[in-house]
């Protein structure tokens, strides 16, 4: 059996701080997403007062084609 080399042991993934930083950032982003979803469920989304049948200036229904002569 060969003894482990110090260079090989220092290259293990769990000894690299960048890996732990990546794991921490990933976990924080997942926790942030869960918090945003939980916080948004507390507030009701009220419908906007709509007076015209359009969405952002685009008609909601297609107009009939003009009669050709």
What do you see in this structure?
The protein is mainly α and 69 residues long. The chain has a domain at 15-42. Helix content is 42%, strand content 6%. It is built from two helices and two strands. It has a two-stranded antiparallel sheet. The radius of gyration is 29 Å and the shape is elongated. The termini are far apart.
Estimated structural class: mainly alpha
Main sheet summary: 2 strands, antiparallel
Shape: elongated
Helix segment tally: 2
Roughly what is the average pLDDT, rounded to an integer? 82
Succession of helices and strands: HHEE
First-to-last CA distance: 94 Å
| Share in helix | 40-55%
Give the tally of β-strands: 2
Short description:
The chain is mainly alpha-helical and 69 residues long.
Q: How are the SSEs ordered, and which strands pair?
A:
Blueprint: H1 6-10, H2 17-40, E1 54-55, E2 58-59
Antiparallel strand pairs: 1-2
Which descriptors would you attach to this protein?
69 residues, mainly alpha, 2 helices, 2 strands
């Amino acid at each position: 059996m060969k003894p482990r080399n110090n260079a090989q042991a220092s290259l293990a993934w769990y000894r690299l701080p960048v890996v732990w930083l990546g794991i921490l950032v990933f976990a924080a982003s997942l926790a942030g997403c869960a918090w945003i979803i939980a916080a948004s469920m507390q507030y009701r989304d009220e419908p906007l007062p709509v007076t015209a049948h359009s969405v952002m200036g685009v008609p909601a229904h297609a107009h009939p084609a003009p009669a050709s002569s």
